[in-house]
Amino acid sequence: MIFKTLAAATLIAAFVTPAFAADEFYVVQDAKTKHCTIVDKKPVDTTTTVVSPSGTIYKTRTEAEAGMKTVKVCSSN
After folding, report:
1. Residue 24: exposed, middle, or buried by beta-carbon count in 10 A (0-12, 13-18, 19+)?
2. Which end of the chain is more exposed for a tag (fewer CB within 10 A), N or C?
């Protein structure tokens, strides 16, 4: 019984977890070119920096696009 419950919980988590990860968008700036873009994964290297206010995580690409227009370093490009 415990095995069936554990297997069911694992199967549900496998399908639900990727759905949550896809709902994150960040406004980042390339360190070399100073060009801003929207990415769906938080940058882990030093070639890009999150420039949205207080590291804001947007739920949709549309929200990120609107947010990018308000970021001063992005609007000057």
Report:
1. middle
2. N
Q: Is residue 41 part of a domain?
A: yes
Burial of residue 25, with CB atoms counted within 10 A of its CB: 0-12 exposed, 13-18 middle, 19 or more buried: buried
pLDDT in tens, 6-16: 555 565 655 55
Residue 12 belongs to some domain of the structure: no
Q: Which long-range contacts (CB under 8 A, 24 or more apart) does 48-51 make?
A: 50/26, 51/27
pTM of the shown model:
0.66
What type of residue sits at position 39? V
- The whole-angstrom separation of Cα 38 and Cα 10 is 32
Q: Which domain holds residue 48?
A: 23-77
